[in-house]
């Protein structure tokens, strides 16, 4: 089956812009908030509406395309990554920020064909930041090329990390131990509250590493391509190959800094997507 990726790219950009205007309109309004896996794993009707808009829009043009969406999964849909063209969607990454009105929130969407990422788009409509990448064609912020930093050592690297949306005591303990280890060895630690936007900060060279355990495919699929197309690397936090379904990600400006970090991290292995 032939997929016209140029056409898909134009179509998804149109839909993402449309969905972005919903986030922009609602971010400073009151929202009814529900919880999912725990008290800090939030969802609003707008997460669900944005995901529906994207899935309906794509399906009407490409009825045989498949989806892995954060909110469809929360509503019981099975996660299945096959060789078919599959869109992996986080309709609002940084839902907690969206709920509070903190402007670091975005749509993250990737198109995978034969399990290879062809398109990655991360759009923060509030700050008007559109990060885009296509396989083999570079990474861009609002149309201008971006590149990772030249950092090769942890001691002068700025690290993006998150506590995540679970309060499982075992995972929390691992994160806190890693925060201590990294605070002692790196330049600094930062958290934007959106896995996708953290990854974009590495892609544009403003930060040098992003690490997280417990994220899902929809948080990292687009960011992985954007970072690699910006000249960086994505690996498993223990040093092996990156696996979008593993719920583990370590992305960096260079393989040297990624591997240096993999050697010192305390590891955590969540259940796979
Ligand atoms: C979450 C955010 C958060 C990260 C979590 C994600 P959501 O996504 O990206 O920064 O730490 O692991 O689940 O729930 O806002 O889409």
TrEMBL record:
Sites where the protein binds Mg(2+) 2: 90, 93
Binding site for Mg(2+) 1: 70, 92, 219
Pathway involvement of the protein, from the record: Polyol metabolism; myo-inositol biosynthesis; myo-inositol from D-glucose 6-phosphate: step 2/2
Cofactor: Mg(2+)
Alphabetical UniProt keywords: Hydrolase, Magnesium, Metal-binding
Domain of life according to the entry: Eukaryota
Residues annotated as signal peptide: none
Reactions the enzyme catalyzes: a myo-inositol phosphate + H2O = myo-inositol + phosphate
EC number(s) from the headed UniProt entry: 3.1.3.25
One Pfam assignment: Inositol_P
GO biological process, one term: phosphatidylinositol phosphate biosynthetic process
MF-aspect GO terms: inositol monophosphate 1-phosphatase activity; metal ion binding
PANTHER family in UniProt: INOSITOL MONOPHOSPHATASE, INOSITOL-1-MONOPHOSPHATASE-RELATED
Family per similarity comment: Belongs to the inositol monophosphatase superfamily.
Protein name as catalogued: Inositol-1-monophosphatase
